[in-house]
Amino acid sequence: MNKIKTGKKIFICLFAIIFLAVLIYIGIDLIEPIKEALKEKSLEPVENKFNNYGIWKYLFLIISQAFFLITTILPNQIIQIIAGFTCGALNGFICSILGIFIGNVIIYLLFHNKNNNINDSLPEKEKIQLQNVNSASDKAKSSIFILSLYFVPGVPYGVAAIAAANNKKVGFLKYILLTTLGAVPATVLCTIFGNFAINEHFLPFTILLSFYCLLIVICLSFKKKLLNHLSNRSIRATVLWSIPVFISTGISIYFSIVDNIKALFINIACLIAYLLIYAMFNKPVSKLFERSRKKFNMNYFQNNVQKPSKLYSFLYYLIKPLIMHKFNVEINKEESFELHKPAIVLFNHPSKVDFFYSFIPLYPNKMNTVVAYYYFCNYHLGRLLNKVGCFPKYLYQPDVSAMKNIIRVIKNDGYLALAPEGRLSAYGSLEKIIPSTAKLIKKMGVQVVITRINGGYFSAPKWAKTMRKGKVTVEIKEIFNEESLKNLSIEEVYNILKKECEYDDFKWQE
Q1: How wide is the angle at C-alpha 56 spanned by C-alphas 50 and 62, nearest 5°?
Q2: Radius of gyration, CA atoms only, the chain
Q3: How do 343-347 and 415-418 pair as beta strands?
Q4: Do the beta carbons of residue 390 and residue 439 sit within 8 Å?
């Protein structure tokens, strides 16, 4: 095991040294032709220089492709595009396939043995990918599964080849055939794209598209870190930092249209420099913005419930068409239904977006909503929730500040919205209703309305990372009014509440 790991490290290091040495040599050698190409606005000097390398350019591309494949980190498509650019679509394709073939043979020699822990030497990200691939491959036919890996976005060729090499059912001939054929479709597309780029008329747009595609891929690779970064800093700072990026994008498009490659390169270089400056000076600049604004702490959110602002209406018009269309929402409302001020609006909680299902049909009436304390821990989200009339409450324990806010909303003739379950359902049916809710309703003595949601669990359940299309029905009706509450005990209110809030999305689906 250790010998194989050491052998692989030595082999990759040797490969890397040769590769970098050749890359540096070519980079230095191409400086003058690139300058001449920019001056003449023609790719002919660069093409002539590559042609002067003769057979060596093909050898370099083959070795580079094999190196990119073995490392499992570097994207193979980069070399394939360069191959199409420098050698033409056909010759570039042949070079890329030869490199893939050689890389696959080396991977087979390094990884094909009975030790299942051979992938321990992989980087952590590739190791997780390979574990997922191996666990899934047990349920699929070997040949079809190996070929399908080459069509899955995010799975490098090297990881797919290692998965095939680890499969004891796959011999060498079958392995080399599958891993080479699997890479053919993407290789054809990349080499054709590279050859397309050599057309001088489309070159500026090709450069621009390639750069921004690379930027998008990098952003998607670090999606979680970027979202976490942006959600925990000054919004004004983010907006100001972003303005130069949008300006630079517009300028790049202009230079592409007027066919000014030199200016396009300079603009892209300036954008890269700007992003590096952002990385270095983001923290101190953001601190200045943090100091220049009024900072609200959790006590403010707990003790200062607001009437929903104009932002509530903006979000309504923005979100309504998306929600109603995506989830195919059907509203069932009693003909005689009328919402009075003040009122309590209850909704069951089978999905992540129940408040949209409940509040959209009741607009222009705006709700003050009881929200779990957890969501106010993110400062920017807390500010947003506060502006649309939400206030925090600790779950399953007495909360004096939340009770005070509830009383304020009712005294100010507002609409109080809450989920009697207290939490998002884990299994698509009613959770336990908090008994104190009945006591609260009896004490407030105002109209109580329920928006009972069915089908929401199947579109956006608690455990899902994504939301999917579906069918949702929302039934809206009054269950208590001022007069009926006077004649009911707390126990009777609780029993009616349980009956009216009862739901089971699985039975509803049947």
Answers
A1: 100
A2: 31
A3: parallel
A4: no
